């Protein structure tokens, strides 16, 4: 899969993209991630990407000209400033899935992550300031996604979350053992508790059943603990119509 990230803080992604499984996925060729500085599509000598809001009010808004130009370049695999031929999207097809991170978007769920992981290409557009000109929502975004009901300072943290969640679903990225575990977690319950050595630590013991070698009993215990935890902190997940899919 190829993922293009558009941001005014390209350095933000140095950590997330060079760490752990994401770094390995890139080295092994499962993932081609490219980070682009939105200012490269600015046309004035100050490289500005924002402007004052029509109608007044505090703060600044991201400009549609810069963001639309950036998206069109990326869709067509062109460098900043290279002219884009009409019809202004990828020749011979649809534009790639282009996700605008925003607190007003559809909440990120494992179901959406699975859907995004099935794409050949993703474009993740990170705004800053008080928001993004509405024409960018209309002309660029195929999806508007929120990380959750709280306000971040920009889209970068949400984009990094999408990259991690999507990359671990790419074929070949997780080993077989981890993939099998993942399937069970995707059935809509929170995780059961995990333990490693020692069997007793500061007076806290590993439950006897986990040391029994009885795999049926272990599976039943884990399912009970998962249900218990889900009931306590996320009862909404147990509603048949309202789960993560
Ligand atoms: C963002 C901001 C006040 C936005 C600018 C771009 C995503 N789940 C989630 N929370 N926050 C975001 C997000 C994504 C992109 C941007 N901001 C800051 C500040 C706003 O209005 C209340 C909107 C926040």
Properties at a glance:
245 residues; alpha/beta; Alpha/beta knot; Trp Operon Repressor, Chain A; 2 domains; two-stranded antiparallel sheet; 8 helices; 9 strands; 32% helix; elongated; binds ligand JCH
> What kind of assembly state do the chains in view correspond to?
single chain
Percent helix among the residues?
25-40%
Number of helical regions:
8
Q: List all distinct small molecules, including ions and cofactors, that are bound in this structure.
A: ligand JCH
The biggest sheet amounts to: 5 strands, parallel
**Low-pLDDT ranges:** none
Q: Describe it for me?
A:
- The protein is of the alpha/beta class.
- It folds into two domains: 2-167, Alpha/beta knot, CATH 3.40.1280.10; 182-238, tRNA(m1g37)methyltransferase, domain 2 (Trp Operon Repressor, Chain A).
- Helices cover 32% and strands 16% of the residues.
- The chain is built from eight helices and nine strands.
- A five-stranded parallel sheet has the order 2-1-6-5-7, sandwiched between helices. A two-stranded antiparallel sheet has the order 3-4.
- The longest helix is centred in the C-terminal third of the chain and has 19 residues, at 215-233.
- The two termini are 23 Å apart.
């Amino acid at each position: 899969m190829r993922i293009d990230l558009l941001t005014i803080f390209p350095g933000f992604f140095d950590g997330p993209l060079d760490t752990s499984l994401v770094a390995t996925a890139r080295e092994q060729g499962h993932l081609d991630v490219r980070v682009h500085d939105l200012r490269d599509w600015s046309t004035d000598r100050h490289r500005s990407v924002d402007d004052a809001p029509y109608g007044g009010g505090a703060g600044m808004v991201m400009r549609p000209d810069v963001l639309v130009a950036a998206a069109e370049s990326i869709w067509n695999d062109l460098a900043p400033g290279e002219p884009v031929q009409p019809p202004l999207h990828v020749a011979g097809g649809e534009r790639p899935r282009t996700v605008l991170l925003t607190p007003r978007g559809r909440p990120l769920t494992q179901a959406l992550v699975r859907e995004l992981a099935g794409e050949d290409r993703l474009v993740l557009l990170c705004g800053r300031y008080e928001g993004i000109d509405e024409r960018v929502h209309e002309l660029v975004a195929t999806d508007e996604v929120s990380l959750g009901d709280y306000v971040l300072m920009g889209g970068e943290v949400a984009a990094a979350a999408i990259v991690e969640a999507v990359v671990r679903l790419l074929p070949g990225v997780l080993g077989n053992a981890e993939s099998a575990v993942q399937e069970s977690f995707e059935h809509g319950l929170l995780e059961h508790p995990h333990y490693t050595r020692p069997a007793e630590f500061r007076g806290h013991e590993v439950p006897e059943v986990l040391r029994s070698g009885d795999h049926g009993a272990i599976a039943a215990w884990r399912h009970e603990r998962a249900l218990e935890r889900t009931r306590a902190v996320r009862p909404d997940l147990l509603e048949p119509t309202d789960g993560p899919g």
